[in-house]
Methyltransferase (Gluconacetobacter diazotrophicus), 215 residues
Amino acid sequence: MTTPADARAFVAAHTALSHAPLVPEIALHLATEITPIWQASESWLAQHDIEPPFWAFAWPGGQLLARHVLDNPSLVAGRRVLDFAAGCGIAAIACARAGALSVEAAEIDPLATAAIALNADANGVTLTVTEADLVGAPPRWDLILCGDVCYENPMTEHILPWLRTAARTAEVWIADPGRAYLPRAGLEVIMTCDIATTMELEDRTARRTTLYRVT
């Protein structure tokens, strides 16, 4: 396994500071060309058992979460927030900027946690980054954010029972761009937005993305 310093160096070397279309206020270390970062990460994965670089892109779910938070800071101000499966950390950074009491960003991929830390530094915010698998942990947060987490059936089946349990004592939001495994029950629509994307990542140039509250 690589060291945190190695991971941060890898992220810095293979990304550029950029801005997501829906959230230009936040700077992020993102891939500017998909193929090179993917090939570099595949090579690195072979040596260090690292996941593909999902952290190098601002996916629609994370963008919608961040936009909603920045437009409605009172929803997170003074609250303890978890950005679960945080990716690049865009939603966590938005919460820190909006005045959350504390922000925790969780990712099990060490490259993702390195990217989140670099992105937090780039935006001058403080948050806690963890590689712990928090599924099953008793909620210690007031608000749990999940962006684009239902892209595979095993992932959905792993996390949804925990999120539904957490929703009894915390507010839980899921932002989803129409993934196949999003459950149809137990979700209340908060808002919907069309978000620009790229044909290299998706099968269309925009994704209709919906923010839900788990009920």
Strands lie at 16-20, 23-30, 80-84, 102-106, 128-130, 143-147, 171-176, 187-196, 206-214.
